[in-house]
Amino acid sequence: VADGVYAAAQAARGREGYAVFCGSCHATDLSGTNSGDSGAPPLKREGFMEGSDVSALFTKTQRTMPFDAPGALTAAEYADIVAFILQENGFPAGDQDLPSDAERLRGIRILRRAD
Q: In the predicted model, is pLDDT for residue 35 greater than 70?
């Protein structure tokens, strides 16, 4: 994802979707609301999903979120939200939207560029 796998406009759409469907549980700043055994984990932190592929993040989000209606969004809306999460974790935008197909996302690794 360090190569810019989502477009800035897509992340902007994702910000709106996140605010509606995710922010109340994961916090508006993505810091999570974990409190003991309840709450939602942070979606913004050092090393977020490092080494995984974007398909894992997309599929987990699609299958389990929003908490009260898993799978209720379109694939494109989930991809937009994932793009926003990547942006908030410091990964740069590129010039094309992140695909909304889990199979195509499997080849995109969550890795930072070595400085």
A: no
Q: What's the Cα-to-Cα distance from 71 to each of 11, 48, 52, 61, 76, rounded to whole Å?
A: 20, 23, 21, 8, 12
Question: Residue 115 — pLDDT band, cuts 50, 70, 90?
Answer: low
Question: What does residue 62 show for φ and ψ, rounded to 5 degrees?
Answer: -65, -40
Quote the radius of gyration of the chain (alpha carbons, Å). Answer: 13
Q: Where are the alpha helices (DSSP H) in 41-107?
A: 54-64, 75-88, 102-105
Backbone angles phi, psi at 100, to 5 degrees: -105, 25
User: Whats the size of the chain, residue-wise?
Assistant: 115
